[in-house]
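User: Run a structure prediction on this.
Assistant: Running it now.
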Amino acid sequence: MIQPTACRLLPALLPAFLPAIVACAVLLAAAPLRAAEPVQLITREEAGLPAPDATGVPTRNLTRGPGIDTQGTLDSGVAGKPLRLAVKFLPSNGVPVDPEKVQVIYRRQPALDVTARVKAFITPQGIEAPAVLVPPGKHIIEILAVDKEGRIGRAQMTLTVAPAP
């Protein structure tokens, strides 16, 4: 129960805490803006590297590792307009994915690890990057997910980006 004397003190204390309350409100209001800023997933220089050879890497899981659903990502876009990178991890036998061991690889010669660029968007449930930028061209992205038992799941997706009109 609040004592009547505490109610009288509250208006007196409010000016002391007001700057901290305003600072928190400003930080919270700015947070969604930062999260919505596009992330450069692939640079123009990286897109200019030679395409991988036709043999590539196996795309099916050889173990009972986690499944990877890339259907949430649109496979085409227009240069200069961000794409949504949405990947869902499907645990095998209820074993969750270890987000620290997820890798996002851009298939070029040589292959480029672009995991650090989307690291903030990786969770045990998947990858949810609302806005990534990719230059014009056809880009193969490989995702490797490792579960808490060390089993690997692997999937590839192709992003096709048209030049800006």
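The helical segments are 4-36, 44-47, 115-118.
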